[in-house]
Amino acid sequence: MPSMNPELLASWGYSQNQLLERDHVLAARERAADLGVGCIDPAGRSMLTLLCTLRAPHSIVEIGSGVGVASMAMLEAMGATGTLTAIESDLEHANAMRQGLRDAGILSARVRIINERAENVLSRLADHAYDLVLIDASAENLLDYVAEAKRLVGAGGVIILNNAFDEHRLARPAVRRASTVATRDALRLLREDPQLQTHLFPSEQGLFVATVIAGQKAR
Ligand SMILES: C[S@@+](CC[C@H](N)C(=O)[O-])C[C@H]1O[C@@H](n2cnc3c(N)ncnc32)[C@H](O)[C@@H]1O
């Protein structure tokens, strides 16, 4: 295991500093700061863009879309006919996301924002109907979200969990806080599923990515 020596830290910082974001993304980040809500970090956003470019999903679900920083990245990268189902319980966040989508010139017909708690919505979404599920809501119901995400994606589908470091508590074994335990359990559930290929990317918040191996269904 590499130790976090100063050179490694400098290289990591260098890679983070390569990330430039366009004006509509920076404006969305400002709206998020005004509302006191988090958004995916620049490295996570960049990785999400890359994954959507590579995978070219047609249909995405985002659990916890906030002001839409990750949503816009995915919509911009997935191609003009792709659609996003964004589940967001806070109306102010959902309205700020609508503003961001207008700024980015994304057609509203491509996005369905469901302003409800995810736990009341996910069971209504069809099995294997989505190519990618991004989970970025509070960790309280994380295990349920992971189970639903496995049901929603088909073969070749992708499940992504942002804030996988649980604000840097994950790697501290003594931390037994509910969100940390739920995150550890969720990552283990995905990592130990033989139908999934997984990787934890060391973005600022930690971006855990799992893909259903071709010809298989996630359990
Ligand atoms: C970290 S923010 C999401 C950031 C967003 N993915 C982005 O990159 O801009 C988490 C969001 O999840 C929402 N949220 C929290 N619990 C939720 C739930 N049970 N159902 C739906 N949304 C929830 C919060 O209101 C908040 O807007």
Based on the model shown, name its key terms.
219 residues, alpha/beta, Rossmann fold, 40% helix, EC 2.1.1.-, SAM-dependent_MTases_sf, O-methyltransferase
Biggest β-sheet: strands ordered side by side in the sheet: 3-2-1-4-5-7-6
Gross morphology: globular
What is the CATH level 1 assignment? Alpha Beta
What class, by secondary structure content? alpha/beta
Low-confidence stretches: none
Mean pLDDT: 94
What's the helix and strand layout?
Layout: H1 6-17, H2 23-35, H3 42-55, E1 59-63, H4 69-78, E2 83-87, H5 91-104, E3 111-114, E4 130-135, H6 142-152, E5 153-162, H7 178-191, E6 196-201, E7 207-212
Parallel strand pairs: 1-2, 1-4, 2-3, 4-5
Antiparallel strand pairs: 5-7, 6-7
Helix pairs in contact: 2-5, 3-4
The structure holds S-adenosylmethionine.
Task: Explain what you see.
The structure is a single chain. The protein is of the alpha/beta class. It has one domain (6-212): 3-Layer(aba) Sandwich (Rossmann fold), CATH 3.40.50.150. Helices cover 40% and strands 19% of the residues. The protein contains 7 helices and 7 strands, in the order αααβαβαββαβαββ. The chain has helices at residues 6-17, 23-35, 42-55, 69-78, 91-104, 142-152, 178-191; strands spanning 59-63, 83-87, 111-114, 130-135, 153-162, 196-201, 207-212. It has a 7-stranded mixed sheet with strand order 3-2-1-4-5-7-6, sandwiched between helices. The longest helix has 14 residues, at 42-55. The model has no long low-confidence stretch (mean pLDDT 94). The chain binds S-adenosylmethionine. S-adenosylmethionine (SAM) binds at residues 37-40, 64-70, 87-90, 93, 117-119, 136-138. Keywords: Methyltransferase, S-adenosyl-L-methionine, Transferase. Pfam families: Methyltransf_3.
